Amino acid sequence: MHWLNHRLAFPSVDSATSEGIVAVGGDYRWERILLAYRLGIFPWGNPSDPILWWSPDPRFVLFPDRLRVQKSMRSTIRRRRFSVSYDTQFRAVVTACGLVPRGGEMVGTWISDALIDGYAALHEQGFAHSVEVWNEDGELVGGLYGVALGRVFCGESMFALEPNASKYAFTHLVRNLRRRGYALVDCQMPTPHLERFGAEPISRREYIRTLRLNDAEPTDLGPWTTLMTDDALDDHP
Taking Cα atoms as reference points, which of 41, 73, 50 lies closest to residue 186? Predict the structure, then answer.
């Protein structure tokens, strides 16, 4: 197992364990997080343990033009059940993702204060973004956050306090990303929830190849407050 030190560097993803672990240790400096994403690596682990840096094979991704929206969700969209904003409550969204249990996951198993600070700094640099979903009473009831590099969006986590709130955030984001010519959304690990949206596995080699081809693409540096629009929700399929 490769242990990281203070130097900003990672071993090749080809050295990953069978589970997909590339390295252990290091910190959540925004520069390290950004470098990791550029290399096809992301952090995930227990706050009480050293940080684990992952590059699984296969990689679970969604091609924006293959997004599937379930019938019940289409009805929610037509009724404009929620309102959506971007990059107005980044820290609140990341914090909520660590507090709301999802599908058997232990609460707060990996979103630590240090991780929140690191991604908040990356947000200030314009690379990390949040999608916020609000109910009719003006309450934050769902959302997600992730990192944009060129025309690749790396999703990190989502939360919902009301039914369909996180699905609404995801659909809103992906349809806007498709409009802007994004190549794929990195979903990292397979989940039934994302599979229903059309996410699928690709090899790590193919994912890294996409990242390298993406290097020359311009990044939509934040904030995304006025970049993403509601009318994208009406795009089809």
Answer: 41
Task: Quickly state the pLDDT bin for 108 (edges 50, 70, 90).
Answer: very low
DSSP string, 108-173: TSS--HHHHHHHHHHHHTT-EEEEEEE-TTS-EEEEEEEEEETTEEEEEEEEESSTTHHHHHHHHH
The per-residue pLDDT for 116 is: 96
pTM of the complete model beyond 0.85: yes
Question: Does residue 169 contact residue 228 with C-beta atoms inside 8 Å?
Answer: no
pLDDT recorded at residue 45: 83
3-state secondary structure 8-72: CCCCCHHHCCCCCEEEEECCCCHHHHHHHHHCCCEECCCCCCCCEEECCCCEEEECHHHCCCCHH
